[in-house]
């Protein structure tokens, strides 16, 4: 069973101050060193790369930049693109998922309504990035 | 099936569950973990997946579709869902169907229904404030912490990561049908071809079960028919973005608007902005409203 647990701690002012993650994932996903160039990090930032999550559409891998226990950026390192439809779906779905990830830490938007998306690979790779020390 | 967050100073818990082929996220009071209602809601969704998924060969729905069992041999909820689908088919002049592509697949009903019921499990345990978001279909109760309405963004199909507008919601559901994820995946059952004329259609109202089914049916109707039909729906409002980037909304949707709030920056994430698609932005004539209007939605 794949889980992402986000516990949001709000300050009195209502600002999100801290995120904590705990996983129950035990998927036997392979771990692959990031094949891409390392990102330029700002002071205080750390980059953590998730495992490759295999989906029926192809492999998905994400990297997160973390600063002060908060995800500040998500990069998609690998995504399904064997067909035009994969590419189209990715162009739509990944920004949505990234924005969900970032806004889940934000006080401004509680949810995004839109065409249904599937996101197993994204979630799994994101989870492993968090497990890897984000 | 335990959920044991390591840090929890606040009174809220967010949880994302991978189920029903998508991600269902919960924003609940911490009490929902202590009293077991979050666990029950999650367990319910997995049960629904096992019984209703057309992708599981051993689900009741798959066995029923294959003619290997009759409805009597299925969980009683299967007959309940099929009866509801038949009513919706009638209500929607045939545009909503449990047989898309000719084969039994009530998924278009099941997701909203299962999600609304998951939310009601939380209400039943005493929660007066929670939000359940099943892959973009949202049911909320009460308000967010502090008494402010929940802010539910409606994805802009022409601007990646952007929002067309934000619904300020309390005690209601928001469901959107669109083409963006899997191409033109909603078929007009009368022609068997992809529905045309709309890029996205959102329905707001008290029940996610109906909001989701109405959004699916209206999207299949195409822009002109959908506009007329959604205007006739009692207690529900619709907001649409056409293939040309125009927008329209029903009086029912507008009725929810008018509480004056302005969201200055509805574009929640710059990530992945693609200039090649920028030319398909919503048309300027309407742009003054897009991203600035906060509609106010409240269930009856």
Largest sheet of chain A: 4 strands, antiparallel
Classify the helix fraction of chain A into a percent range: 10-25%
CATH superfamily of the largest domain in chain B: ApbE-like domains
CATH architectural name of the largest domain in chain B: Roll
Features:
heterodimer; A: 134 residues; alpha+beta; two-stranded antiparallel sheet; 2 helices; 24% helix; disordered N terminus; B: 300 residues; T-fold; eight-stranded antiparallel sheet; four-stranded mixed sheet; 10 helices; 26% strand
Kindly describe this structure.
The complex is a heterodimer of chains A (134) and B (300). Chain A has two helices and seven strands. Chain A is an alpha+beta fold. Chain A has a domain at 42-131. In chain A, strands 3, 4, 5 and 6 form a four-stranded antiparallel β-sheet that branches. Chain A has a two-stranded antiparallel ribbon with strand order 1-2. The longest helix of chain A is centred in the last third of the chain and has 20 residues, at 84-103. Chain B is α+β, with helices and mostly antiparallel strands and 300 residues long. Chain B has helices at 31-34, 37-52, 60-65, 76-91, 107-124, 208-221, 223-231, 251-256, 275-278, 284-287, and strands at residues 12-19, 22-29, 130-134, 137-141, 150-155, 163-170, 173-178, 187-188, 193-194, 198-205, 237-242, 247-249, 257-262, 293-298. Chain B is globular.
Record the SSE blueprint.
The complex is a heterodimer of chains A (about 130) and B (about 300).
Chain A (H helix, E strand, L loop, with lengths): L2 E8 L5 E7 L22 E5 L3 E3 L2 E10 L2 E9 L5 H20 L7 E3 L6 H12 L3
Antiparallel strand pairs in A: 1-2, 3-5, 4-5, 5-6
Chain B lengths: L11 E8 L2 E8 L1 H4 L2 H16 L7 H6 L10 H16 L15 H18 L5 E5 L2 E5 L8 E6 L7 E8 L2 E6 L8 E2 L4 E2 L3 E8 L2 H14 L1 H9 L5 E6 L4 E3 L1 H6 E6 L12 H4 L5 H4 L5 E6 L2
Parallel strand pairs in B: 6-14
Antiparallel strand pairs in B: 1-2, 2-3, 3-4, 4-7, 5-6, 7-10, 8-9, 10-11, 11-12, 13-14
Helix pairs in contact in B: 2-5, 5-6, 6-7
């Amino acid at each position: 069973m794949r889980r992402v647990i986000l516990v949001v701690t709000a300050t009195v002012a209502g600002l999100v101050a801290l995120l904590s993650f705990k996983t129950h994932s035990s998927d036997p996903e392979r771990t692959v060193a990031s094949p891409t160039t390392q990102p330029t990090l700002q002071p205080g930032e750390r980059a953590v790369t998730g495992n490759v999550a295999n989906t029926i559409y192809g492999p998905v891998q994400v990297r997160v930049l973390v600063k002060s226990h908060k995800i500040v950026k998500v990069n998609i390192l690998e995504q399904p693109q064997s067909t035009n439809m994969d590419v189209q779906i990715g162009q739509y779905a990944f920004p949505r998922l990234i924005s969900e990830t970032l806004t889940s830490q934000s006080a401004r938007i509680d949810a995004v309504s839109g065409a249904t998306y599937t996101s197993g690979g994204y979630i799994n790779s994101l989870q492993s990035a968090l497990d890897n020390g984000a | 099936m335990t959920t044991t967050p390591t840090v929890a100073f606040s009174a809220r818990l967010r949880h994302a569950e991978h189920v029903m082929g998508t991600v269902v996220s919960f924003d609940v009071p911490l009490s929902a973990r202590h009293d077991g209602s979050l666990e029950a809601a999650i367990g319910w969704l997995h049960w629904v997946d096992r019984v209703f998924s057309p992708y599981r060969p051993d689900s009741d729905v798959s066995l029923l579709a294959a003619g290997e069992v009759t409805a009597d041999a299925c969980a009683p909820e299967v007959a309940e869902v099929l009866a509801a689908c038949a009513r919706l088919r009638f209500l929607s002049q045939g545009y909503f169907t449990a047989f898309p592509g000719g084969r039994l697949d009530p998924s278009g009903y099941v997701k909203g229904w299962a999600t609304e019921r998951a939310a009601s499990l939380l209400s039943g345990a005493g929660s007066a404030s929670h939000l359940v978001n099943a892959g973009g279909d949202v049911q909320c109760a009460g308000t967010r912490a502090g008494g402010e309405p929940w802010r539910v963004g409606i994805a802009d199909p022409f601007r990646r990561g952007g929002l067309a507008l934000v619904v300020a919601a309390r005690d209601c559901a928001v469901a959107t049908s669109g083409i963006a994820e899997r191409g033109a995946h909603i078929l007009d059952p009368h022609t068997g071809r992809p529905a045309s004329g709309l890029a996205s259609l959102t329905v707001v109202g008290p029940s996610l079960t109906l909001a989701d089914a109405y959004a699916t049916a209206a999207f299949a109707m195409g822009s002109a028919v959908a506009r007329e039909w959604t205007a006739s729906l009692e207690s529900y409002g619709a907001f649409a973005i056409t293939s040309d980037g125009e927008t329209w909304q029903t009086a029912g949707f507008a009725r929810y608007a008018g509480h004056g709030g302005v969201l200055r920056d509805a574009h929640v994430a710059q990530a992945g902005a693609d200039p090649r698609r920028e030319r398909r932005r919503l048309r300027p004539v309407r742009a003054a409203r897009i991203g600035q209007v906060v509609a106010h939605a409240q269930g009856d």
